[in-house]
Design brief:
316 residues; globular; mainly alpha; 15 helices
Length: 316
């Protein structure tokens, strides 16, 4: 009896991590995350010399005080020339663009991950949750076969093999163990993030008394849409606060069963999109929605793409 249960547990563990998976979801995440990563790093162009040049609004010593580490690597630590600084910045943006489009994905994916880490480690005092999720997704998508779907790499391979450039005759990318393993890493990492984010809120009195959502929407510093009309509905504020807390604290449990997963992911989309629209954190909201796509079924995504007029076989 015990031996049978152990074997079943081992088979379930093996199936969870090492069962081949369609890389279509990873390809979609690469395109979306790549676009957000490209945009957030392109924004640095307007203040590149101030934050990353020799003038250093954020001195390297300041970074080390914040991180408490001497090993937060960044290529900016060794740049003293303006020309080299600008050249490497444009190279980084080019790599991010190529990664987004899925061109030379294996190489540009690794370079994008390294550049993303490097920018974040150099501008520690100016980074936020957006930069951390950028690093997370860039790293995992560089590991996985994210260029096997919805990429220029696959389109080029289809052309070379004599298939239609439109992809109409191009077969779907084959399922792979690495695609599943990478997807599981993203999923588990997300569960850890939500677990600590949710349980840390339990230490805040405003989350217990139901006032936390009001504190967020009434903060003029982050207010892009006036939501202060909620003051007339205190019970609604209370409900929204406790619902958001319950969702975040139980995400790591309820996201796995099929019956509850769709509701958990739908809530994630609603919460992060709502934060993006009302609090001016659209980039963060979009990157979190992109990360949650890891729980989307490749079959469902392929049906959605087909319904949108994109053939499931055009993961080129």
């Amino acid at each position: 009896m015990i031996g049978s249960s152990f074997r079943n547990a081992c088979r379930a563990w093996d199936r969870f991590w090492f069962h081949p998976r369609d890389p279509l979801v990873l390809g979609s995440m690469r395109f979306l995350a790549g676009a957000i990563i490209l945009y957030t790093h392109a924004v640095w162009t307007f203040q590149l010399e101030g934050f990353f040049g020799p003038a250093q609004l954020l001195p390297i010593e300041h970074n080390r005080l914040i991180t408490g580490s001497l090993f937060a690597w960044s290529h900016f630590h060794w740049i003293e020339s303006w020309s080299i600084l600008w050249t490497l910045h444009w190279v980084a943006l080019l790599c991010m663009l190529m990664f987004c489009l899925g061109l030379m994905t294996r190489v540009t994916g690794i370079l994008t991950a390294l550049f993303t880490i490097s920018y974040a480690n150099r501008a520690v005092g100016a980074t936020f949750g957006l930069d951390q999720i950028n690093v997370l997704l860039a790293f995992y998508l560089a590991i996985g076969p994210s260029g096997q779907s919805l990429s220029l790499d696959r389109w080029i391979r289809s052309r070379k093999s004599g298939k239609s450039p439109s992809g109409a005759q191009s077969p779907s990318a084959p399922p792979s163990i690495l695609a599943n393993f990478t997807t599981r890493l993203i999923q588990v990492h997300l569960c850890i993030i939500y677990f600590f984010a949710g349980t840390s809120k339990l230490l805040g009195a405003t989350w217990w008394n139901g006032e936390a959502i009001w504190g967020a929407v009434a903060n003029a510093e982050y207010q892009t849409v006036d939501m202060t009309w909620l003051a007339a509905y205190p019970y609604l504020i209370n409900l929204m606060t406790h619902l958001a807390l319950a969702w975040e604290a139980t995400y790591f449990i309820l996201v796995w069963p099929r019956w509850s997963r769709k509701w958990v992911i739908a809530m994630a989309f609603a919460v992060h999109l709502g934060i993006g629209i009302t609090m001016g954190m659209m980039e963060f909201g979009l990157i979190m929605i992109t990360a949650n796509l890891a729980f989307l079924s490749p079959v469902l995504l392929r049906k959605c793409l087909s319904a949108a007029g994109v053939s499931g076989s055009t993961d080129s």
